[in-house]
């Protein structure tokens, strides 16, 4: 066999070898458990806010141990939203059409809803943001080191609007949405 042919064969096999070493994606996490893990992450982030990341000698930053433990629990329990989890997002948007959230039930203080953490970068964040904005919600995303982009919608101002936002998130592929008191970014 000629050297060129061997190199072509090796180059063709390298991607296959690389894929074999990737860890399998954990199965989709239990929504109730994921909500608890997200809330633990929120607590760790708020407790260690000034010290969330520590500088290293090489100029990079690392998460504090508490935040790292919370991040690892979210990852290992399958609580992240991947591109595959959003496969029906655009068709759902077309089915629902544009609309506005309905305020109903008892009033509540303006509340943000943590929808989930997207692993597909700005592309998935853009898709999800466009979906929720078409449904009448303001949106914000925040980067979370080691995890992806956290997506928040709102504000909701009634129990009915909160329930509606959480149900819409679940229908869109985010089964672990919850009201977040950690993050307030709207002018009330």
In short:
The protein contains 6 helices and 6 strands. The protein has a domain at 84-180. With 188 residues, it is α+β, with helices and mostly antiparallel strands.
Strand element count: 6
The averaged pLDDT comes out at 80
Unreliable residue runs: 6-11, 13-23, 50-56
Class inferred from helices and paired strands = alpha+beta
In percent terms, what proportion of residues is strand? 15-25%
Order of helices and strands: HHEEHHEHEEHE
Helix-residue proportion: 40-55%
Main sheet summary: 4 strands, antiparallel
CA radius of gyration: 20 Å
Output the strand order for the largest sheet. 4-5-3-6
Number of helices: 6
Rough outline: globular
Terminal Cα span: 73 Å
Provide a descriptive summary of the structure in words.
With 188 residues, the chain is of the alpha+beta class. It contains six helices and six strands, in the order H-H-E-E-H-H-E-H-E-E-H-E. A hairpin with a 5-residue loop joins strand 1 (53-55) and strand 2.
């Amino acid at each position: 066999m000629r050297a060129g042919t061997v190199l072509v064969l090796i180059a063709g096999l390298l991607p296959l070898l690389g894929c074999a070493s990737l860890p399998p994606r954990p199965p989709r996490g239990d929504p109730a458990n994921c909500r608890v893990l997200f809330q633990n992450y929120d607590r760790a982030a708020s407790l260690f806010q000034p010290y969330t990341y520590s500088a290293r000698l090489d100029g990079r930053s690392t998460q504090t141990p508490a935040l790292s433990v919370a991040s690892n629990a979210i990852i290992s329990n399958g609580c992240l939203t991947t591109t595959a989890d959003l496969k029906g997002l655009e068709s759902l948007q077309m089915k629902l059409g544009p609309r506005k959230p309905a305020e109903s039930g008892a009033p509540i203080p303006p509340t943000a809803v943590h929808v989930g953490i997207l692993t597909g970068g700005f592309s998935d964040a853009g898709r999800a943001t466009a979906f929720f904005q078409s449904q009448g919600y303001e949106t914000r995303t925040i980067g979370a080191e080691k995890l992806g982009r956290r997506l928040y919608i709102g504000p909701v101002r009634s129990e009915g609007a909160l329930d509606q936002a959480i149900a819409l998130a679940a229908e869109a592929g985010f089964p672990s949405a919850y009201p977040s008191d950690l993050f307030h970014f709207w002018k009330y």
